[in-house]
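look at this record:
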Amino acid sequence: MIRLKKNIIYIHTHDSGRMLSPYGYDVPTPNLKKFAEDATLFRQAYCVGPTCSPSRAGLLTGMYPHSNGMLGLAQRGFGLQDYSQHLVQFLKKQGYHSVLCGIQHEVGSYLNPEEGAKTIGYDENISADNANYPEEELVKWDYLNAQRVSDWLTRADKEQPFFLSYGLFATHRKFPTGEKNGIDSKYVMPPYPIPDNEVTREDYAGYLKSSSWFDDSFKIVIDTLKHEGLYEDSIIIFTTDHGIAFPFSKCNLTDAGIGVSFIMRVPESNTKGEVVESLVSQVDLFPTICDLLNIKKPENLQGVSFAELFVDPKVEVREEVFAEVNFHTSYEPTRCIRTSQYKYIRYYDEEYLKVNMSNIDNSPTKSYYLENGLDQVVKYKEAFYDLVYDPGERNNVADEPRYADVLKEMRQKLVEYQKKTNDPLLHGNIEVKEGWKVNKQECINPSSKNPNDYVKAREYSC
């Protein structure tokens, strides 16, 4: 039987960027690669914010973080202004049954799926208990959740369409320890821009182990979909929230921070096994799903449907993408616009143009940087990069005369976007509200127990 409405399977990892084998990296994810060969792989997909809750909230509401209210991390007191704008509640009105298994990052702690499922409005939460897992073993919780998903799929009502969100802790820190898949730190290379040394190799080997755990879990879900005859009746989405949890990736508006894996299988599409080079943003997924299901779009959506790319992979659906940072652990108001050739980043906190060190997850690699002058690294008020000649975004050409005209155009487009979406930064800094947990910008440790390392409510964060 073929359903009139396709199921939607949303599988998402934590902090993976594009560091996975379908994107050419030597990462042990063969099952994801096999899936990519039977799906559509987007090479130029970007998140709306390189920090966990804002990114996911943007994808699941079709709205930018400063518009949907998710200015920072849910576990630090931030939330959506209106949970009825969540994709889950929209699909439920269309007759979909909704199921959560594992990580969600739009409500409270991401390790409390029961609270998240209730607030978001899922019909079921099938997540396993994670209380007895230390962080470095939460990949085993992922694996158990994959089995929970498999069990649910075998008994699912084959006549009712469903939305299933399977969220994994992998590849979040802390990374798993012990042996996995023969990974040896002596023979790995940390990704750019991380320097290559004994400390960083060992750290990156932990990421590879976590990736391998994810891939094992992913296989269980895909195999079950095929076995139960649901594979051809489902739109399957694999993505992640933002770049890897290493310095100068996660929580940065360079491509290392906002570039994401995005692989999507639409059963009737012409682009299974194809690679798409067109720019897309995760904020575009909601309107795309509406078009694929032939459902009228909500008026609040800010993304652009890329459904046409499943017919013709060469179509250009947008000329630029936008991304932002407001709060991660500390306040770091930043905006960017990216085209196929250029990137413009604006840092609004002009009184603190240094690295917000607490916005870098604690790790051996961070410690290495701290020992080598991380506190002296500065940011530009404006950064402009020619991505053809500088894909690593390390040569700021904002002051070069030959780029003056295109820089002016990028500035103007960014402001037009901010006006259109009513960006609060147009009116000054964002005031810290009661209930938000925000580190001071000079704080080093995001998990500091010192109350003097935190901003008080009603204070501006700069």
In short: The chain has a mean pLDDT of 96.
